[in-house]
Amino acid sequence: MKILVTGCAGFIGSQTAKLFLENGYEVIGVDNLNDYYDPKLKEYRLKFLKEHNNFTFYKLDIEKTEDVNSLFENHKITHIVNLAARAGVRYSIENPYVYSLTNTYGTLNLLEAGKKKGIEKFVLASTSSLYAGQKMPFKEDLPVNEPISPYAASKKGAEAMCYSYHHLYGVDTTILRYFTVYGPAGRPDMAYFRFIYWIDNNMPITLFGDGTQSRDFTFITDIARGTFKATLTKTGYEIINLGNDNPKKLNYMIELIEKGLNKKTKIDYKPFHKADMKDTWANVEKAKEILNWQAKVSLEEGIEKTVKWYIENRDFVNSLEIK
Questions:
Q1: From the UniProt record, which GO molecular function terms apply (predicted)?
Q2: Catalytic: 151?
Q3: pTM higher than 0.90, yes or no?
Q4: CA 36, 319, 304, 255: dihedral to nearest 10 degrees?
């Protein structure tokens, strides 16, 4: 097996690649190291992967068809784990074109190259954002035909492309819909990361809404473990939720961060953003049945670990450009 992990310097990509490497698999990692957030954080994650002899890295953009094809000519890739993505709901409203290019067209490039070379497995990272307006807890068979942001729409396009390649060419495919992933060395545009940074630096929190909205926060090691299992499991074609199945309010998460830092904060309330979802909650019965997976880390434990990492790496985090 030779596993391609795209977005390997990203938050989920780096942890998933690490899990493959620690279990003895050969990993080809690609990432374009873009500056959506400070690339120093991506380099920080990447250096741990480069310590493994069974890891090969290429700075590569999956939007570029020729570069993707060249990669597949040079390596006999058997499994594709597509974790490269433009993330972030609000920024997708400002720059929808780049989301479509990376998330949908980039997925097409990988599917087409993989089809030509007879890959054994394709895994796509998708999102709980597709469930906007649906009844909770969200099940995979709900109709998700009305995405409320260009980000969600681009992921819906990627999912549709995956199904067509499975239908036409028999590519074994698993689509994973992730629910609010958090943890150490995460994305600085995520609320929990900003909240930790702001509270520690005695800055007020900017909060869209009143904090009663809830998220099914899922710790990064649980997400990586689920992705690992999905890659090694033949499913034909399946869409599977990976979530904690235990939603918590944003106000409660803020309380946990305050406790971890032993600081109180002031909150600058802003109107609820119309591209945001009010609540998320994953039904994970399918993950239990097909992947023998369920989340293990509670929000309390996860925030404690995340704050601990921040404190231990405070100087590094404070050197980052936090937009």
A1: UDP-glucuronate 4-epimerase activity
A2: yes
A3: yes
A4: -80
Report the number of distinct structural domains present in the chain.
Answer: 1
Active-site option among 151, 192, 197, 310? 151
pLDDT of residue 19: 98
What residues make up the domain containing 127?
2-319
Query: What pLDDT does residue 250 have?
Result: 97
Q: What distance in Å separates the CA atoms of residue 179 and residue 160, rounded to the nearest whole number?
A: 20
Bridge partner list, 5: 29, 81
Residue 228 sits in a domain of what CATH number?
Answer: 3.40.50.720
**Which residues on neighbouring strands pair with residue 218, listed in sequence order?**
181
pLDDT digit string (tens) for 21-49? Answer: 999 999 999 999 999 999 999 999 999 99
Instruction: Give the pairing type, strands 205-208 and 218-219.
Output: unpaired
Closest by CA to 257, choosing from 169, 209, 194, is 194
